[in-house]
Write a structure and sequence with these properties.
Layout: E1 8-12, H1 16-27, E2 31-35, H2 39-59, H3 64-72, E3 74-77, E4 88-91, H4 97-110, E5 116-119, H5 126-130, E6 139-143, E7 153-158, H6 164-176, E8 180-183, H7 192-208, H8 214-225, H9 231-238, H10 240-254, H11 263-271
Parallel strand pairs: 1-2, 1-4, 2-3, 4-5, 5-6, 7-8
Antiparallel strand pairs: 6-7
Helix pairs in contact: 1-2
The structure holds 3-hydroxybutanoyl-coenzyme A.
Length: about 290
């Protein structure tokens, strides 16, 4: 299959990553069929996409008419069967191998063996996931970064079973949807999270040890290293619960103490301090609600 043959892509999962991928694919002129079991999740995804596109219009990168056309290219369904005949399907459902397994079984039941599956997993082995589908040669990792419309990178990760043609197609697709790709081996964390997750964990440890306040840790990294967000601010933005889940998967794969989740994160989850979306994480956002 060649990139020119792909006019429609599928997006399984409409969380923040799925919404972002759907948006950039539609902005690149592709029809996008989004599938998520929950209509409530769609509602949120649609709002996120519109809000994000409004920012792009404000910047003058696209016109209002182009925004309307982009939105019109995205359709939503709860039925996996709507992805039948879609040649290229992105996957960004919950980071749990059993959830992914269930989804790919449903997809395999309706899609042909020439369908390309590109998973956005950040912490599960691509090779392990490829082994779940009927044609592992067409399975690949394409790992995007949050917020997807802004972050220019995608990591392209072939599984042991991935065909060279699938890798080439994923690289072409990354370029078409406006991303710069790097390729790497299927190892836990790939490149970015292998470096980023220990940094995030260490920031929580500094706070736990009372080395500095949350504000001072974040200010240190923003002003001392030019990070756009501090490590604790970032966790509030991405969701402390999601980060905690990813850290635990990493720890399970890496079996190294430096990947163990700090106790403070566990307690924050128990307290419901899961970040900006809950009104409280490392910082208090109750005034913003
Ligand atoms: N859609 C479209 N444009 C957006 C946007 C969105 N959702 N969010 C921000 N922007 C644009 C703004 O319009 C603005 O554009 P301009 O500079 O041309 O005017 C620009 O991005 C900056 O936005 P803001 O001025 O509103 O705010 P910030 O300067 O604080 O930027 C941020 C926001 C881009 C989120 C920035 O803080 C950032 O880069 N944070 C770090 C994000 C990061 O590290 N992501 C990677 C995490 S690792 C990961 O995702 C892996 C996964 O496995 C967990």
């Amino acid at each position: 299959m060649k990139l020119e043959d792909i006019k429609t892509v599928g997006m399984a999962g409409a969380g923040s990553m799925g919404a972002g991928i759907a948006q950039i694919a539609a902005m690149a002129g592709l029809q996008v069929k989004v599938v998520d079991m929950s209509e409530e999740v769609w509602g949120r995804a649609k709002k996120t996409i519109v809000k994000s596109l409004e920012r792009v219009v404000k910047k003058g990168t696209i016109t209002e008419k182009e925004m309307e056309e982009t939105i019109a290219r995205i359709s939503f369904s709860t039925d996996v069967a709507s992805l039948k005949d879609v040649p290229f399907i992105f996957e960004a459902v919950f980071e749990d191998i059993n959830v992914k397994k269930e989804l790919f079984a449903k997809l395999d039941a309706v899609c042909g063996s020439d369908t390309i599956y590109a998973t956005n997993t950040s912490s599960i082995s691509i090779t392990e996931m490829a082994a779940l589908v009927k044609n592992p040669a067409n399975f690949i990792g394409m790992h995007f970064f949050n917020p997807v419309p802004v972050m220019k990178l995608v990591e392209v990760i072939p599984a042991l079973q991935t065909a060279p043609a699938t890798k080439d197609l994923a690289l072409d697709m990354a370029k078409k949807i406006g991303k710069t790709a790097i390729t790497c081996k299927d190892t836990p964390g790939f490149v970015v999270n292998r470096l980023f997750v220990p940094y995030i964990i260490d920031a929580v440890r500094l706070l736990e040890e009372g080395v500095a306040s949350a504000e001072d840790i974040d200010t240190a990294m923003k002003l001392g290293c030019n990070m756009p967000m501090g490590p604790l601010e970032f966790q509030d933005f991405a969701g402390v619960d999601i980060g905690y889940h990813v850290i635990n998967i990493f720890h399970e794969y890496m079996k190294q103490e430096r990947f163990a989740a700090p106790g403070l994160l566990r307690n924050m989850i128990k307290a419901g301090y899961v970040g900006r979306k809950a009104g409280r994480g490392f910082y208090d956002y109750s005034e913003e609600k």
